[in-house]
């Protein structure tokens, strides 16, 4: 699963999911936007920053191991 939706834990089997941190992505986007406005230019900067994620391991992984 993606973004660790609340329902993921209640599926059968409970779904393993990755949670991303949207706040960090938003911070990077605002930084690029402000830089573009200040310099009145097209953004050519590449983001080389990692965005942390959490892996929520639930029984869906165990179900694969048992097969």
Instruction: Determine the mean pLDDT.
Output: 81
Low-confidence stretches: none
Radius of gyration: 18 Å
Number of helical segments with 4 or more residues: 2
Helix fraction, binned, reads 25-40%
Strand content: 5-15%
Main sheet: strand order:
1-2
Q: What is the number of E strands? A: 2
Largest sheet: 2 strands, antiparallel
Question: Which structural class is indicated by helix and strand composition?
Answer: alpha+beta
N-to-C terminal Cα separation, in Å?
20 Å
User: What gross morphology would you assign?
Assistant: rod-shaped
* Helix and strand element order: EHEH
Short note summarizing the structure:
The chain is of the alpha+beta class and 67 residues long.
Entry keywords:
alpha+beta, two-stranded antiparallel ribbon, 2 strands
Polypeptide structure, described:
The mean pLDDT is 81. It is rod-shaped and about 50 Å long. It starts with 16 loop residues before the first strand and ends with a helix. The protein has 67 residues and is an alpha+beta fold. The longest helix has 18 residues, at 22-39. The protein contains 2 helices and 2 strands; from the N terminus they run βαβα. It has a two-stranded antiparallel ribbon with strand order 1-2.
């Amino acid at each position: 699963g993606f973004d660790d939706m609340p329902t993921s834990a209640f599926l059968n089997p409970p779904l393993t999911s990755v949670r991303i941190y949207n706040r960090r992505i938003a911070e990077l986007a605002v930084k690029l936007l402000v830089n573009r406005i200040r310099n009145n230019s097209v953004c050519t900067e590449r983001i080389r920053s990692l965005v942390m994620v959490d892996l929520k391991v639930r029984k869906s992984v165990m179900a694969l191991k048992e097969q």
